[in-house]
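Technical annex, item 7. During the second reporting period the consortium partners agreed on a shared format for inverse folding records so that results from different sites could be compared directly. Each record opens with the tokenized structure and is followed by the designed sequence. A conforming record, contributed by the partner at site C, is shown below for reference.
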């Protein structure tokens, strides 16, 4: 029987609806980040850098691109005969097919997978956070405290604490109380959704709670273990950690990569971030182009001006085009004379010549004011925007649009144009 000390279960089935059209065709963990990566590269790289060589990736919503990206795990050195990376979609059982209905239910449905490695510990991770963490150090902490469950926590500003699951601890780090998004938080230690369970404890909890509807770690499993009197400890993490769950935090996290001294450094030798790299020619920057404070992916061609932006692989920015404070994902084309301000443009989209994106006064979005906000103009993947149109802020455009879709050549701030049936 194979025996692994610790295996990781990576929850990557999330839809990420607060990212709007960016996740209409792709699961949130597969969304592009930082020019050449996808969000899931960060927890996967953390695993291999922490010496964890067995990772189950639980997929559900729009898994195709995620599956293709992960493949057999070669970029992360996870193509192993024993262990390695395994994609675990929901599957049909005898008599019934079951979707994953909650984070813990997804793990429960893969008990047989975990059992096959006979692990001592199971690490539960989310596939949609940007951070670097050595899980080995957390495991040492778990063992030193003789814990049944360790929860990674990080201090957050007290006024934001009600957005998170909050833990209250004693001076030894033992968890006394767990509050799920409390109105009046008793501490500012927020759960990061990263857990280490001793295998026997996890298995017993999942079997006991198997009939719980939408069974979830924060709402059900952790409180259950706490009530049973098991030892729960908080492992405090003080590094960089970003939940890129909204368009604002996604844009911000990308922009932080181009700070003079980035808080989150992609260039560290000892903690590399691995990804699936396509074989692309080098980037080309034309003689009379301007590129200031940018990340530029391989295979990109820049003939215009780009300031303070994250440019993916295979992007073309034509002569006279100006891009500012924006994120362009792979294979985007910005035609001559177009201007993009604070835009997030998803893969394979074309912005027509002389079109202006992200201009004018800011107004709340009429359809999804909480999603399409932050003064951004968001373009879904495979979108075509015709020449000579003007598009305002807090807008979303998706699909192959035509000049007649823009009355007087304008899409006002706060409006949404959906020609692909993608706006969520």
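Designed sequence (site C submission):
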């Amino acid at each position: 029987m194979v025996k692994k000390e610790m295996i990781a279960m990576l929850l990557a089935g999330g839809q990420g609806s607060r990212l709007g059209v960016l996740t209409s065709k792709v699961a949130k963990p597969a969304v592009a980040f930082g020019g050449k990566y996808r969000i899931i590269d960060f927890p996967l790289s953390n695993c291999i850098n922490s010496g964890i060589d067995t990772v189950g990736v639980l997929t559900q919503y729009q898994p195709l691109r995620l599956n293709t990206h992960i493949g057999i795990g070669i970029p992360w050195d996870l193509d192993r005969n024993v262990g390695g990376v395994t994609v675990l979609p929901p599957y049909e059982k005898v008599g019934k097919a079951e979707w994953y209905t909650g984070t813990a239910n997804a793990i429960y449905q893969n008990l047989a997978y975990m059992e096959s490695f006979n692990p001592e510990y199971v690490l539960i991770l989310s596939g949609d956070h940007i951070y670097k963490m050595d899980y080995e150090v957390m495991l040492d902490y778990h063992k030193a405290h003789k814990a049944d469950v360790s929860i990674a926590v990080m201090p957050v500003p007290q006024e934001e604490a009600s957005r998170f699951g909050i833990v209250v601890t004693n001076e030894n780090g033992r968890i006394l109380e767990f509050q799920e998004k409390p109105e009046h938080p008793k501490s500012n230690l927020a759960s990061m959704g990263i857990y280490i369970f001793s295998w026997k404890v996890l298995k017993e909890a999942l079997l006991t709670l198997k009939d719980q509807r939408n069974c979830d770690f924060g709402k059900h499993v952790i409180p259950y273990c706490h009530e049973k009197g098991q030892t729960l400890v908080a492992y405090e993490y003080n590094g960089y950690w970003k939940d890129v769950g909204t368009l604002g935090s996604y844009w911000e996290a990308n922009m932080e990569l181009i700070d003079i001294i980035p808080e989150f450094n992609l260039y560290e030798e000892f903690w590399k971030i691995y990804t699936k790299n396509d074989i692309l020619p080098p980037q080309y920057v034309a003689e009379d182009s301007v590129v200031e404070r940018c990340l530029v992916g391989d295979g990109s061609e820049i003939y215009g001006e780009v300031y303070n932006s994250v440019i993916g692989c295979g992007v073309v920015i034509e002569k006279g085009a100006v891009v500012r404070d924006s994120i362009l994902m792979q294979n985007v084309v910005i035609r001559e004379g177009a201007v993009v301000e604070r835009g997030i443009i998803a893969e394979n989209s074309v912005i027509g010549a002389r079109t202006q994106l992200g201009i004018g006064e800011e107004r709340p979005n009429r359809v999804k004011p909480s999603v399409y906000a932050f003064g951004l103009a968001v373009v879904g993947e495979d979108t075509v925007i015709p020449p000579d149109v003007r598009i305002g802020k807090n807008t979303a455009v998706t699909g192959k649009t035509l000049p007649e879709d823009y009355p007087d050549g304008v899409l006002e701030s706060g409006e949404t144009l959906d020609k692909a049936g993608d706006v969520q």
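The longest strand covers residues 189-198. The chain has a mean pLDDT of 88. All partners now use this format for quarterly exchanges.
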